[in-house]
Amino acid sequence: MTSKKKRRSPGEGSVITFTTASGDVRYGIKFVRPLDDGSTKQVFRRRDEDNQPWTSKTAAQKALRDALSKLDRGEYVDPSKQTLGEYLDEWVDGLRLGASTLASYRKNIRLHIKPHLGGVPLASLTPAKITALYRKLETDGRRDHQAGKGLSARTVRYIHTILRSALSAAVDAGSLTRNPADKAKPPTAKEAKAPEMHPWTRDQLRAFLDWAKVNSALYVAWFVLAMTGIRRGELLALRWRDIDLDTGTMAVRRSVGIVRVKGKGAEITEGPTKTNRPRVIDLDEPTVNLLRAHRRERGSLSLQLARDDALVFGDHEGAWRHPERFSRSFREHLIRCRKQLADGAAEAPELIRLHDLRHTHATVLLSLGTHPKIVSERLGHANVSITLDTYSHALPTIQRDAVSKLSALMSTGT
């Protein structure tokens, strides 16, 4: 009596064999999955979760067991047919972020992700495809007046952050079983380090401020930036009600930035600070006196410009100054300063960015022995480790002073 071959039940699924057009033998899996409405759906797959074909029966059998196990646990996800471009449009529309951050996300998605991977189904994304995108962007990613050149490693890493966050949300929503960006290879943190800073020495800072006092209509703005270390956008968002000239304190609560939306042009907007946390910093007496005089001068132009809700460094009509034009004004004034001081006795300051006034503030304070925690609080860093990492070049001076003080103390005691 011959025994009959045991047949699989529909719920167990099966492995099938097929031949590609090129004659290669491949394997697929087939099984039935229940749907939420009580009906069932037959699933047929020829590729794994990384979009790779199964080239052996053993691999396909393992994939089938994994799929059935996920079905039992309620964790199985059908491969999404939605393209990455379609998904990213939906994802970014649902984010609750500041206007400038949203505009930045949309710009990078539109210019740097969708042209290369926008038509790829979510289920077909692989770490290799995403890594290839990063390498492409590094060599030929610019879409502005420098088209044909590569994006910086820092920008590509930022794009990776956007894509990884978006795909992580797809995993949470059940559209993907795992995030392919997790195993992609963006530029390393070391490769994407921030642009090199160029802080001034105390003499260079003094030389520029002395020159600006006589030659620049924005002297008070440059002085406040140098003496507080606040960011450009934070300075331009200051209102008189944020400054207590009697107690000598300044509350940094907001920041002004540029938002660019395709078809709408650039727009100046006000939002929270970079860390989304307000802070209060102390002002020195010269800064307080300068701000008092500045408020009187603004009030002499128009009483509206000296009201509590008026901008401290607004334009003549009381509106926000354009942040980028503000930075260009600093550069133009600095170039004039350098030309006039080039043959003088004072040390001509180096050509730096406006943001380097912030670095100068921090570096000078640290070189004077100020505790890094205090510097961190003034700058509005999320934590003191950022300050220590950013300004590590100034720390040896602090160490030398500390060692000298310890040595003097021990010598006195012997």
Automatic annotation (TrEMBL):
Keywords: DNA integration, DNA recombination, DNA-binding
Biased composition (Basic and acidic residues): 180-196
Keyword hit for GTP-binding: no
Stretches for region Disordered: 177-196
Domain Tyr recombinase: 195-404
Domain Core-binding (CB): 82-171
Highest taxon, organism lineage: Bacteria
PANTHER family reported for this sequence: PHAGE INTEGRASE-RELATED (PTHR30349), PROPHAGE INTEGRASE INTD-RELATED (PTHR30349:SF64)
Family: Belongs to the 'phage' integrase family.
Designated name of the protein: Site-specific integrase
Organism: Nocardiopsis rhodophaea
